[in-house]
Amino acid sequence: MKIKILSSALEDLYEGRLFYEKQGEGLGEYFFDSLFSDIDSLVLYGGIHAKVYGYHRMLSKRFPYAIYYKIEGEARVLVYRVLDLRRDPKKIRQLLKTGRTNR
Which member of 1, 16, 20, 43 has the lowest number of beta carbons within 10 Å of its beta carbon? Predict the structure, then answer.
């Protein structure tokens, strides 16, 4: 499978990276690398995760984040959002429904 990361997900990753970099030097880079490693695993495991709000949801292994994606055809994974799970579930649902990046 091929993976396409949409701009909304890239913005989420960038914001998470900035947040964690403020917590400690190098932590933002570790966050970025960890989440990309999780996303890369979708080549093998795309489609096996439970659906939440109409998207497959994969939980990150090292951070409280979820990767929301859909399968397009038989050979492509589209990553829509990478969201912090410490948020209000209503806000997560709204972000997934509207596609907006407002926080």
Answer: 43
The pair of structure tokens assigned to 95 is 């972000």
Burial of 21 (0-12, 13-18, 19+ CB in 10 A): middle
Range of the domain at 39: 2-98
| Amino acid at residue number 42 | L
Phi, psi of 56 (to 5 degrees): -70, 140
Q: What percent of the chain stands above pLDDT 70?
A: 95
Alpha-carbon distances of 15 from 25, 78, 92, rounded to whole Å: 15, 20, 15
Band (pLDDT 50/70/90 cuts) for residue 101 is: very low
User: Does 103 reside within a domain?
Assistant: no
Unique residue bearing structure tokens 């960890």: 34
- Radius of gyration (C-alpha) of the chain in whole angstroms: 13
